[in-house]
Write a structure and sequence with these properties.
Length: 121
């Protein structure tokens, strides 16, 4: 499900958060699908449960997951995410990337083709 890179400069909780967010936005985790418990994921990854809890808390704050008392954490549907703030942040990042790609002489046709891929890899 997730893999960690201990040599990465990104903190472990950030790697977990980004990995889970990626699974949610790509549909690998479907809306309302149950996530592993904090304890189970901590055991699987051999890390402190507080690290998992921090990643889950941030994902919940951003609207990518939600918790149900006594039941656990679940992947949120797109309409639950804090869409306005997140969209604004992503659009700003995309504009920076597009500017850099244009500097590197990537054509509008190439950019359009990339957009047509819909993020698929």
């Amino acid at each position: 499900m997730l893999s960690l890179n201990y040599r990465d400069s990104q903190p472990i909780y950030g790697q977990i958060k980004d990995g889970l967010r990626r699974l949610i936005v790509t549909g690998a985790l479907e809306p309302d699908e149950k996530l592993p418990s904090v304890r189970a994921l901590a055991i699987d990854l051999a890390i402190n449960p507080n690290t998992i809890q921090r990643a889950y808390a941030e994902l919940e704050r951003e609207g990518f997951i939600y918790s149900v008392a006594g039941k656990g954490s679940f992947a949120a549907a797109p309409d639950r995410a804090d869409t306005l703030e997140r969209k604004s942040l992503l659009i700003d990042r995309l504009r920076e990337i597009i500017a850099e790609l244009r500097f590197l002489q990537v054509t509008d046709a190439e950019l359009t083709a990339l957009m047509g891929e819909g993020g698929g890899q």
